[in-house]
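Review box. Two proteins, two foldings.
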Amino acid sequence: MIDVENLVFNTVFNAVENVRNDVTVNKGFIEKNAKFPCVVVRETGNVPVEETATDPCSENYSRLTYQIEVFSDKEGTARSECRELINIADEAMHGMKFRRTYLSDQINVNRTIFRQYARYSAIVGKGITTVSGEGQQQTTTTTFQMYRR
């Protein structure tokens, strides 16, 4: 399985953290006692691209789908706060060559909390892993390729 979840999460987390240090960023779900504003990064799809397979069981590229959800409970400005944060995440996702396929506001059961979300998609190739350094200073880096038709 081609897995870039940590790369996507860390990229969005760092982008948000560089602009606003008062935002909670979670992977996959929102906590029951969440502190707002909150950004959730979730992989919603990971499907192999069959036409790139070199044999029936190979997975050379996968179509990945991520959803970024932003929540705010700021009275009077929740919508604008969500838009600010979704724009930060949007730039981070575009920087990784993900294409936004959907953006919407969502009515929450709790109407004091505003939610906005965006979906992103990209076709990503399996990574090339390189090791550098020695001993305790050794680091492993994986570089992923985006599929171009």
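Next protein.
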Amino acid sequence: MQTLALIRTLTGAELRNIRRDSMLRWMAAFPILFAVLTRWLVPLVDASIELDLQPYYLLIISVTAVMGSPVLIGFLVGVLLLDERDDGTLQAIRVTPLSMRRYLAWKLSLPVAVTTLLSLLGIPLAGLVSFQFNFTPAVLVGALWAPILALAMVAFAKDKLQGFVLMRVTNGLLLLPIGVWFFDARWEPLFAVLPAYWPLKAFWLAARGESYLLFAVIGAAYHAALVAWLYARFQRSLGRST
């Protein structure tokens, strides 16, 4: 009961932090707003230029819905974690009934659930491709990028500015796997070292009615390994700061 009460207290404090910061409020709402904007803007651009964008609709929605939402929510959680580290909240948790491991398990599972929901809602809202329930595994794997980014920020960034720079760098890494869409298939193994390749590939295959589960499973294992490594790195960095 003490643990549940502590979680409720921390959740309330977190929600208050988001409400007080206009940037965080916008970032929390942006995935849905962007999906609605995509529904209107992409067909408008498509009708205004000579290039036919419809063959790229699947690519566009995969980047915006599958990987876009995790980046935004992961950055939001990363900023909150940086605030908690600087305020001493994370250090104080060590002497509470709620262990750091359980606190972070709750803290990082919540953005996975929220990101998955936002992505699954964003696909039909954007309207570029027909929604399919077999998108869910790929979306779940993509959602794991939210805790990866959040942990990377608190493990490597000294402040919010460095956290923002780190987010920009990871954005570049997330965009690299779209090269699979354009390059010859023999180059595809080169992109497999990038975590974002696996959920994107699984999403594309699912949309085409092809076998995708292997890519989703490998992607989940890859992302889980990154979460474990970043958690260990975060624990070491937290120890050095105390």
